[in-house]
C-alpha cells in the first residue's frame, strides 16, 4: 500500500473577502507541481462564502463537478435551465460535458455557506451536459459507508467516470475496512471532522490521505469522525 499525506495546513489558500477557500490541489492562483491531482481527482476545494455572495456565471466543459454543502445553503443556476437550492445533506453533480455556464451563490443573506467543490476528470468527453442532486440522511452513514456518487448505483447521483464518493460517520473506536472496487484505483480520504487512523497515518480535521496500490485498507476512529472517501482511477 502506498499513501500520500496532505495536512490541512498544507493546502493552498484563497481569500477575497467574500470567499475563504482552501485548495487540496492546484487551483486558481495556487499552483504546486507536486499537487496537481490524485488520479482522476483534479480539485478538492473547501469553500466558505459570505452571505449573498458567490461565483458569477462562468463556463465549464468536460469535467464532473460535485458540490457537497457542509453548512448553509447554496443556490445553483446553469444554462441548461436548472435553478436549484442545495442544502446540507444534499449532494449535487454537474456533468459539464460539451460545455455550459453556471453560477453558484450563497442562498442565505445572513448565514455563510461552507461547501466542498470536487472536480473529477470524465470517462467520456463531450457528453450532453447533465445535472442531478439527491438528499441523504446522516443517520444512514453511522459506522458504515453511504454511497452518494457512483456510475452504477441508482441511490447515488450518476457520474461520468468509474468513481465512487462515500460519506461516513465513525464513532470513537469503530474500525471500518474499505474495499476498493478495482485494485488499479486509488482512494482519497478527507476528514471533515474528528480524528482517524488509516494504515500508519493519523489524520485530523481537514487532513487528506491518498491510498493506492492496495485492494483494501482499514480506517479506525480515534474519536468521533466525519469522512469523505473518493475512489477514482489512477490512470485514465
What does this entry show, briefly?
The protein is 0% helix and 55% strand. It is mainly beta and 236 residues long. The strands form 4 sheets. It has a 7-stranded mixed sheet with strand order 1-20-17-22-15-13-14, with no helix packed on it.
Please name the defining characteristics of this protein:
single chain, 236 residues, mainly beta, seven-stranded mixed β-sheet, seven-stranded antiparallel β-sheet, 22 strands
What does this molecule look like?
With about 240 residues, this protein is mainly β. The chain has strands spanning about 1-5, 10-15, 20-25, 40-50, 55-60, 65-70, 75-80, 85, 90-95, 100-105, 115-120, 130-135, 145-150, 155-160, 165-170, 175-180, 185-195, 195-200, 200-205, 210, 215-220, 225-235. Strands 1-20-17-22-15-13-14 form a seven-stranded mixed β-sheet, with no helix packed on it. Strand 7 (about 75-80) and strand 8 (about 85) form a beta hairpin. It is globular.
Mean of pLDDT: 96
- Give unreliable regions as ranges: none
Rg measurement, Å = 17 Å
Distance linking N and C termini:
20 Å
User: What is the number of strand segments?
Assistant: 22
Q: What is the chain-wise order of helices and strands?
A: EEEEEEEEEEEEEEEEEEEEEE
**How are the strands ordered across the major sheet?**
1-20-17-22-15-13-14
Share of helix among residues?
under 10%
How much of the sequence lies in strands comes to over 45%
Assign the structural class, choosing from mainly alpha, mainly beta, alpha/beta, alpha+beta, or little secondary structure: mainly beta
Q: What is the 3D shape? A: globular
Query: Biggest β-sheet, characterized?
Result: 7 strands, mixed
